[in-house]
Amino acid sequence: MRVHDLPTLLEPAELLASELLANALRHTDGPAALKLRQSGPSFRLGTWDTDPTPPTATTPTDTATSGRGLHLVDAYADDWVWFTVNGNCGKYVWCELGTELKPD
User: Fold this and answer.
1) What's this model's pTM, rounded to 2 decimal places?
2) For residue 100, which phi and psi values (nearest 5 degrees)?
3) Who contacts 62 (Cβ-Cβ below 8 Å, separation ≥6)?
4) Nearest-CA neighbor of 34 among 81, 100, 93, 102?
5) Diameter of the chain by CA atoms?
6) Phi first, then psi: what are they for 38, rounded to 5°?
7) Beta strand ranges found along the chain (DSSP E)
8) Sign of torsion over alpha carbons 32, 75, 82, 53
9) 98: region left, alpha or beta (phi > 0 left; psi from -120 to 50 alpha)
């Protein structure tokens, strides 16, 4: 993030990358991958996994140690979406940061 002159996005990007990748690894038996892309003032993070099941937010309890991932993505990302890959071969979940920033 610092290399791309986006230091304010560093902490939310780290949080979102860890949540997206943790979900991808937790909810599939196959491989998973993280992809990062910078475009102007925005930054996109995406994960692919082999499970085509749609991501769903759960209602975590105060004592729950999991179940907050998509709530965090929804709270910190400017936008997020998912789609199936090649019919039924998995899914790709991505989110974007910095879309509200104006270039100098």
Assistant:
1) 0.81
2) -90, -10
3) none
4) 93
5) 44
6) -110, 135
7) 32-39, 42-49, 79-84, 91-97
8) positive
9) left
Mean pLDDT of 12-32: 91
**Amino acid identity, residue 32?**
A
Q: Which residue has the higher pLDDT, 42 or 78?
A: 78
Exposed/middle/buried for residue 39 (C-beta within 10 Å: 0-12, 13-18, 19+): exposed
**Mean pLDDT, range 56-62, rounded to an integer:** 70
In angstroms, rounded to a whole number, what is the distance separating the alpha carbons of residues 18 and 12? 10
Residue type, 9: L
Here the tokens at position 55 are 């991501």
